[in-house]
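Section 3.1 - Work completed
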Amino acid sequence: MAPQMIFVNLPVKDLDVSKTFYEKLGYTINPQFSDETAACVVISDTIFVMLLTEEKFGTFTAPGKAIADASATTQVLLTLSAESREKTDELADRALEVGGSPAKEPMDMGFMYGRSFADPDGHHWEVFWMDPAAPQG
């Protein structure tokens, strides 16, 4: 059985700006699922982000529903795991260097550490590391 995949669809104001942001984070664009209205960002073998122009995104939503302005409202938190505290910092710092903005203060609970940023459209991303040796409970 093939692993389950997730495709997160995000509306964007400027497709080229968004593509450049995610490419500068080290991700690639899959041209097979990209055109002038959409870009498929490959996060991993099972995680993809579909960047869609607002017009294209609107064709997938229910009739009459407005597209949320991610810079003014929060509809979803997108969270990625990292293999270490250092990798958490690397991705968050890189996002801030290439056009992202801070979303909230870092979270450090010792066994769990997280950082956050907003992409150019205001979509809120979390990156976190959890010590695999930490007791579960």
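Second construct:
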Amino acid sequence: MSGRQTVQSRLGSLYREVAKFGAVGGAGVLVNVGVFNLVRHSTGLQTVRASIIATAVSILFNYVGFRYFTYRDRDRSSRSKELGLFLGFSAIGLVIENAVLYVATYGFGWDSQLQSNFFKFAGIGVATLFRFWSYRTWVFKALPARELAEQAESILAEADADPDAAPHSRAAQ
């Protein structure tokens, strides 16, 4: 593969990853803002407390989406480590997201429904940049090429060993 094809392939892969991350993240934003408004107006909790609850709910929603949709092809060797890292980086994102809302609400006194939703959304945007970088770099790491090749070879070997289980294997051809 030429250098140009390699770059195009990597850019295409990154584009698909960003699109999947955006789809899950967009749904997570809807969950986050929806829960925020529901909790804030139905319970009477303070703005930032309602936001923290909403962010926690969206973190759980997003983990499922990222693990089983966006990064389903990534390394799965250590789920407990992955979950720990995800929750750790998500907690940092929670602080970033809610710091923006906190400063707007308590620093500037901007606490109307419109202002709270605007700054909630702004905080989500800032935290999303951090989350995208940290999740792809530390949490859902790509498998090294050698491990991918070994996985493919083991799948082919299993298919060759049991031709009834895999009718499209090389042994069945």
